[in-house]
Amino acid sequence: MAIKKIKPVGNGRRGTSYVDFSELSKVAGPKSLRSILTKKAGRNNSGKITLSHRGGGSKRFYRLVNFGQLAEADAKVVAIEYDPNRSANIALIEYKSGVQDYVLASDKTKVGTILECGQNTAVKSGNRMPMKNIPVGTSVHNIELLPGQGGKLCRSAGNSATLLSIDGDIAQIKLPSSEVRRVSALCFVSVGSVGNSDKMNISIGKAGRTRHMGIRPTVRGKAKNVVDHPHGGGEGGTSIGMPHPKTPWGMPALGYRTRNKKKKSKSMIIKRRSV
67 lies in which domain range? Predict the structure, then answer.
């Protein structure tokens, strides 16, 4: 999909761009695959803000996307739709039995494409199969961490991982973060990369557009009061007054490793991501 720039007819429109939606289907998907999405607004059950800069935004339904295996061996893509809850587009598929489902749309998925899922499936963009049946060097997305768990990795727009090697029941993949890890070769993945890769190139253009997304203004810690942030207080443009930056709750920030060293999956990581 291409990027379209809006004519600067006013200050609010100048510099704004968006992804061309001409390839998306005009018909709304089935209501049975949508559910009500309640707003959390960054607060916990006590009403305290635990995730800052969240709130407001347009109303939206949650699309029930199937990240696991297809219910039948193959299905036909009947529509490509926009999903307000994720950067990637989703494909509405229909099985031979007439049942419909949502899956992530790959970069080459179009209306009329036949998607297949199984052990003896052709290595074609959008098809889903175990990693042991895929040639080394292939780009994959929607990767399972445990067999039958459903895809957990590489699900955002334009993302994909590279299959490095297969040794018995263990496969090595390189993630977009440059992390190299081992995964069971029995885990199902989708061939190719996620579509809508131009999403990262859009220019939001104005503050009101971010408010429609549910993003509230971001305030620097040093601009706050002492009671609100460890960086707060001071006279004028003073420094944060400490050797290293901290989060609003006093934990180290910017480069501090937060992964639990006792996590069971640590042995599966060969090379950590570059900071």
Answer: 3-200
pLDDT tens digit sequence for 261-274 = 899 989 999 999 87
Q: What DSSP string runs through 207-236?
A: HHHHHHTTBPPP--GGGS-TTT-TT--SSS
**CA pseudo-torsion sign 19, 101, 38, 48:** negative
The answer to whether residue 213 is domain-embedded is no
Output the six-digit token pair for 100. Answer: 């419909």
> Do residues 152 and 146 touch, judged by C-beta distance below 8 A?
no
Do the domain assignments include residue 255? yes
Q: Is the dihedral of CA 140, 112, 121, 29 positive or negative?
A: positive
Tell me, yes or no, whether 183 and 252 share the same domain: no
The pLDDT tens digits of the residues spanning 162-202 come to 999 999 999 999 999 999 999 999 999 999 999 999 999 99
Q: How many domains does the chain have?
A: 2
d(CA 124, CA 127): 6
Report the pLDDT value the prediction gives residue 120, as an integer from 0 to 100: 87
Q: What is the rounded distance in angstroms from the CA atom of residue 66 to the CA atom of residue 90?
A: 10
Q: What is the CATH number of the domain that holds 13?
A: 2.40.50.140
Q: 248 and 187: one domain?
A: no
